[in-house]
Design goal:
Leu-bd; Leucine-binding protein domain-containing protein; BCAA_transport; 8 helices; elongated; signal; alpha/beta; Peripla_BP_I; 3-stranded antiparallel beta sheet; 12 strands; Rossmann fold
């Protein structure tokens, strides 16, 4: 198994044939918080997180650690459970704490609702989101309320590489819309699997067990491999080593790289 969009902690540890090519939140959130602190001059935030989902709980824990490391005070930590539709109560509590920003670890559906309802309640401070908010459905669901949302990202549309430009143009020509991070990660995953099959040297007559073993071993040899995400390697722990990750912000209804104050 090659996990293409599974950023929670512990994915490769599930088993000896599980590999990951998506940058974990532990590799994205440190840069995201450090960048947000610099850009927004953050000193005080409120944290909202979904405590009913393993991935959002994992993201919350990483956020909490990075906020502490960066000396950013958490004025309140508020939990909710996925599946709800009315977040007025936790948002009112967040507003009362007068934060400079609201940090959210949630899935896309709840993220879009939180953004929309927050703006309706007069909350104008920026939102800083986990991987679940780095999703096209958040932009579609929240509309203008998503403007200014900051997320960590394994990929941005303008990532400066020939491989990404080729992928971006081919996707847009085929589907008549801009690709999102999930599309880029899925494409990179397919590239990695295809390369592993090539390296396995299979002739076609091998048994399924032999095929699996050879492909698994070949996956371990992927190093400095070019994808739309940049050059990636698979470590001895079967996790991705992606030297470059990004911080993105929603501007004009799309995710763009955040590399300067706005």
């Amino acid at each position: 198994m090659v996990a293409v969009s599974n950023p929670a902690k512990g994915i490769p540890e599930i088993g000896p044939t599980v590999f990951r090519i998506s940058a974990p939140e532990a590799a994205q959130i440190p840069k995201e918080i450090a960048t947000a602190k610099k850009v927004l001059h953050l000193e005080r935030v409120v944290v909202l997180y979904d405590n009913a989902d393993d991935s959002t709980v994992s993201g919350y824990r990483t956020f909490a650690g990075e906020l502490e490391k960066n000396g950013i005070r958490v004025a309140d930590t508020i939990t909710f459970a996925r599946g709800g539709s009315d977040f007025s109560e936790p948002l009112a509590r967040a507003k009362a704490a007068t934060p400079q920003a609201i940090v959210v670890s949630a899935l896309a559906r709840e993220g879009a609702l939180l953004l929309t309802q927050a703006r309706g309640l007069g909350i104008s401070v920026p939102f800083i989101g986990g991987n679940g908010l780095n999703d096209a459905s958040v932009l579609a669901g929240a509309g203008a309320a998503a403007e200014g949302l900051i997320v960590g990202a394994a990929w941005v549309p303008g990532a400066p590489s020939a491989a990404n430009l080729k992928f971006y143009n081919a996707y847009k020509d085929t589907y008549k819309r801009e690709p999102n991070q999930l599309a880029a990660q899925a494409y990179a995953g397919a590239q990695v699997v295809a390369e592993a099959i090539r390296r396995a040297g299979l002739a076609g007559g091998e048994g399924i067990r032999t095929q699996r073993t050879r492909i698994t071993e070949a996956l371990k040899t992927i190093k400095n491999f070019q994808t739309p995400l940049g050059r990636i390697s698979i470590t001895s722990a079967r996790d991705v080593d992606q030297p470059r990750t990004y911080v993105a912000v929603v501007r004009g209804g799309r995710f763009v790289e955040l590399n300067a104050p706005w």
